Amino acid sequence: MISRISQSFIKNMRDYKAGLECGNIIKHQYVDGNLIDLQSDSMAEGSYFEFMWTTALPKNKKTPLPVYMKTPLKNKAARDLKVSDMDQGYRRIHFNSGYVKSVFDKLGLKIVSFGKLLVKGRHEGTIDIIALVTKSQEFGDVVWNVGDKIVIDVKYSGLLNDKWSRHGWMWSDIQKEYHGTQAKQYNYVSELPFYFFVVSSTNKEVEGTFEPPEIKFFHVPIDSHMTEVHLSEGNSLLEMLKFESEVGFKPRPEYGKCSKCSIREGCLDRFDFPRPSTVDLTLGL
Questions:
Q1: How far apart are CA 222 and CA 185, in angstroms?
Q2: Pair (48, 185) in one structural domain
Q3: In a domain, 285, yes or no
Q4: Number of domains in the chain
Q5: Cβ contacts of residue 22 below 8 Å, gap of 6+?
Q6: Which residue of 84, 211, 263, 265 is most buried, as measured by CB atoms within 10 A?
Q7: The pTM is what?
């Protein structure tokens, strides 16, 4: 069983507590200590983007690889493949990763550390970027002085202007809770100001080149009360994990989730076909 609290653990246990996550997944990850190594296409592109920008490896420590178009593969050996032979999403990543490097230069930020695990007490976090400020600047209420250090979490997303999904970046209440969990955790373990650097993954390709990606750069101030509430929730969820491991986790199979689940083989609770559910047409007040 885990002994340290991560921001991912808090999010997943929060979902389990709310009845949104399967207990078998929670047990597999946090009691049995297994890595969930199942990435969607967007997650794979995000890992490749971070690798191309900072050379940071994902949690599975495997070097992210690009996906190539099928047509060139018929006529070329793997060693002869070029960026132009990649699927559009990966060609875009090569453009965008180079573009954000130039943006960092203009901001006067120098990467001094990436992919670093920080531990404070029973809390931990793997920091995407610790950056050094190389020129003094003011951005409204944000003031940078030469020598300052800041923590930056990198996001590669197609949801920069989505306010409904919790993964979006319009700072609706659900997004404040979801992204705020990471901001509070990383601010606590690093003791440094926290920022999100969100790069669009949907900029258009025009005549063989890409338009500059939309970028949103967010400073997330954290006060002592926020930190106190966050730490209390993390500790409470860890105690809940210990209790559930003794009494038994509740499996919550769903056909859609089970069909994509990385531990579906051998799972006795999985759904192999959709179940009918009852709809109550009574109108609420």
A1: 10
A2: yes
A3: no
A4: 2
A5: 16, 251, 252, 253, 254, 257, 261, 269
A6: 263
A7: 0.90
Three-state SS letters, 160-192: CCCCCCCCCCCCCHHHHHHHHHHHHHHHHHHCC
Is the residue at 154 inside a domain? yes
Q: Which amino acid is at 40?
A: S
- Give the Cα separation of 233 and 253 in Å (integer): 26
CA gap 165, 122 in Å, rounded: 30
Q: Which two tokens stand for residue 132?
A: 């050094």
**285 residues of the chain, pLDDT tens digit each:** 999 999 999 999 999 999 999 999 999 999 998 887 666 788 899 999 999 999 888 888 889 999 998 765 566 666 678 888 899 999 999 999 999 999 999 999 999 999 999 999 999 999 999 999 999 999 999 999 999 999 999 999 999 999 999 999 999 999 999 999 999 999 999 999 999 999 999 999 998 899 999 999 999 999 999 999 999 999 999 999 999 999 999 999 999 999 989 899 989 999 999 999 899 999 976
Q: Are residues 195 and 244 in the same domain?
A: no
- What residue type is 225 in one-letter code? H
Domain assignment of residue 211, given as a range: 37-222
Q: Which residues of 79-93 are buried (b: 16+ CB within 10 A; e: fewer)?
A: eeeeeebbeebbbbb
Dihedral in degrees, nearest 10, Cα atoms 273, 270, 165, 180: 180
CA distance 29 to 70: 35
